[in-house]
Amino acid sequence: MAMLAWNVRGLGNKDTVRTLQNINFKYKAEIIFLCETKQKRIYLERIRMKMKLDNAFYVELKGIAGGLALWWSSKVKLSILGEDKNFIDTSISIHGEEDWFGTFIYAPSYMEEKQKFWERLASLRKVTNLKWCIVGDSNIVASPTDKCGGLPFDHNSARWYYDFLDRTCLTEIQCKEGIYTWSNQRSNEAERLDRALSSLEWNCLFPRAIEVIDVAIASDHSPIILLMNGVLKRIMTDFKFESKWLVEEDCSQVVKKEW
Question: Residue ranges of the Endonuclease/exonuclease/phosphatase domain (predicted)?
Fold first, then answer.
């Protein structure tokens, strides 16, 4: 079982859609969360059907910005508990196992909205001893080691984030592959913004769960994958290099990183 979360920065580009399909072929995710889709429901539904996922829930974009999409397979029992432009809150049961809370986030980037977002997120659960997992774009650099280059480390944003962790008793799920999830693509600036959090009770339900960060292609954010059983089955495929990749500004960075 795998969950995939990705800030796609717009899903109107054919290369972005192809990249999403390739990532899902690799991980076989049964739950996919996409933020900043910048597309209407009718367009997103066509992509979902091509990816053969059975169910969907959407938070419509505002003007030409934002937009959230949550897709899941028939093997997953999922109920929507709440939503707004920054999150989708759900109750989930996989393969008939016991229910747990799953919250998929796209945190605001504006400073004046960040504190209110984390306070509202904490208010979703009135008690702490619950099976709860949060995954998505946190838009928070949690520590100086989570960034490379760019502006100085923002202590205020980090404080709001750690206040949230203290109130909810959540911790970050161990990341096995990758460090940074966002890059400027025009310099050496990079940050860890996307992450997965869980409660102790959720960890007891999925003790082998790990987070994996995949390569950033077609977006300045990397997709993050939550592997519930901690195992990634490698699928061997023929690698095909496309010449159009050479015109991408971040091509040389990706090659250097993976080499």
Answer: 5-221
